[in-house]
Amino acid sequence: MVKEEKVALNVKNLNHAYGSRRALDGVSFEISAGRFTVLLGLNGAGKSTLFALVTRLYDAREGMIEVFGNDVSRAPGEALRRLGVVFQSRTVDLDLSIMQNLAYHAALHGISGHEGTRRAIELLEWFDLSDRRNEKVRNLSGGQVRRVEIARALLHRPRLLLLDEATVGLDIRSRADIIGHVRRLVREENIGVLWATHLIEEVTPQDSVVVLHQGRVLAKGAVSEVVSANGGGDMKTAFANLTGAGVPPVASGAAA
Ligand code: ADP
Ligand code: MG
Predict the structure, then answer these.
(1) How far is it, in rounded angstroms, from Cα 52 to Cα 202?
(2) Tens of pLDDT, residues 225-253
(3) Does ligand 1 lie within 6 Å of residue 48's CB atom?
(4) pTM for this structure?
(5) Looking at ligand 1, which atom is closest to the CA of residue 50?
(6) Share of the chain above pLDDT 70, in %
(7) CA-based torsion, 121, 124, 126, 132: positive or negative
(8) Cα(63)–Cα(228) distance, rounded to whole angstroms?
(9) Whose C-alpha in 1, 99, 101, 189 is 20 to 30 A from the C-alpha of 243?
(10) What is the maximum span of the chain, computed from C-alpha positions, in angstroms?
(11) 43: exposed, middle or buried (C-beta count within 10 Å: 0-12, 13-18, 19+)?
(12) Is the CB of 3 under 6 A from ligand 1?
């Protein structure tokens, strides 16, 4: 049971449709501070739509979203202040240096120049980017750009970090590096993380998971519980059993 004050994100009965296409259908879950929670779903499951609602890119007409007890519709300032986001699409300025990108973002959050620089230096240290800090973002590798975006999302010291497909398009080493950095934030800084991905291999047995499929939550909780409740073996088997993806489309012997 999650203690009330430790609930980083509380989503209740969220619905969203694009015209007649229903993208989220009664989505409810909680994530805790100090936990790494994976939002696991295939492409089209509704992960990015959920992010758009939590960050108020779209207005949630039905249901409720709270960040550390602050309703994003009624107290957006309080809620968004506690939230850091890394979107699926890249949003850095390629022609600015790493430091310039971070400085502008800090200014946007009302952080003074001196304090912004101090925090940027500290974060770049954490993300192993110190020696590149005056480099134009254009000259960085995909993995380094992602680390810049994560560092930037942390400048205003949020207690909850959302990342949407943060490792897409990266090689295995960069992926492991990024996920390692984010797990360390959870462990050492007690930040709550919601990590959206379609890659089952990014889930470890110690994580929590929310399985989203065709706009619905099919399972949620500790990975070990979700796995044992849905087929025993591992997350891959459990996911296949939950979504029906592991069931052959035509049972053997049945007429086509
Ligand atoms: P995911 O991020 O898990 O891949 P999305 O939230 O992007 O899923 O999409 C969920 C569903 O909503 C999909 O069926 C997708 O085609 C549809 N969708 C997403 N964005 C739009 C949009 N702007 N207009 C219409 N349909 C959309
Ligand atoms: Mg998406």
Answers:
(1) 22
(2) 999 999 878 999 999 999 987 544 443 33
(3) yes
(4) 0.92
(5) 6
(6) 94
(7) negative
(8) 30
(9) 1
(10) 72
(11) exposed
(12) no
